[in-house]
Amino acid sequence: MRTYELAIVADPRLSDEEFVTLVDEYKQLITSRGGEVVREESWGKKKLAYPIRKLSEGRYVFLFLQMEPASAALIPEVELRLGQNDRVLRFLTVRTDLDLKRAANRVKPGQPVRTIHSEPEPAPVVEPAEEE
Amino acid sequence: MAMGRRFAPGKGRKPAGKKKTFFKRRKVCRFTAEHIEYVDYKDVKLLQQYILERAKILPRRISGNSARHQRMVATAIKRARHLALLPFTTD
Q: Which domains can be identified in chain B, with CATH numbers?
């Protein structure tokens, strides 16, 4: 199983609905080709570090994908469509399973791999006592 | 307290007292120390600590990062730059 992260920076002039439609379009494409969107992280409108197409803001969304190696051919397809979409300012796909696996091997056994370090350490998850 | 080596009079190449003293500050790779094994390009706050005022990547000789970790930081910064999370330069 491979995991990928797909980051999309969209035009800030899109309305909330338009933005959701745009992201849904890609989510559907991914799902229809055997990929799975595991998690989605939306940062909303954020100031760009430098202007892109004379715009100073962008709408950020990160999709966390999972798929079998056989389905990985959908990635170039998604990238092609993103490139053709003029409402998308930037996008980036990163394959993360190999790096995370390598990191997990170096971390003490049983310890989770932390990816965001500027935030305080997450509180240990307390397992709910009752069981289903 | 020994203040550097003293040379026998007349033998030293530099006049006594003018000998340069070097301070060796021990540089520690933060990532090794904190067992950070994955540097995320989304972690802007962390990456900002590794760019200079002109938005250049902080060199290893300054940060003291291990080669492996420096590589991870550099890649993450470059990815973040592409997404305009970090600047390429300041104007």
A: 42-91 (4.10.640.10)
